[in-house]
adenosine deaminase
Amino acid sequence: MNQPPVFDKPKIELHVHLDGAIKPETILYYGERRGIPLPANTVEKLQEIIGMDKPLSLPKFLAKFDYYMSAIEGDQEAIKPST
C-alpha cells in the first residue's frame, strides 16, 4: 500500500501530554528557577491541586493547567522530551 510520507514519521500523542506528562517535581523546579509563584511548594500539595482522581468536565480539566503553565511555558529546556 502506498501511503503519504507523513505516515512514516513519528507522531505526538497530544492526549498524553495533556493528562500529566509533566512531573510535579519539574513544575516546582522551573517555577522556583524562574521566580514564578505556584499554588504549592511541595510535590504532594501540588499533586493534590493539579491531579485528578475522577473524571472532570473539559473546562475543569483545562483549568488545572492555569496553576502551572506559567512555570514552564516558553522554556525550551522545561518542555524537551526526556530520554
In short: The chain has six helices and no strands. Helices lie at 14-18, 24-34, 43-50, 58-63, 69-72, 76-79. The mean pLDDT is 81.
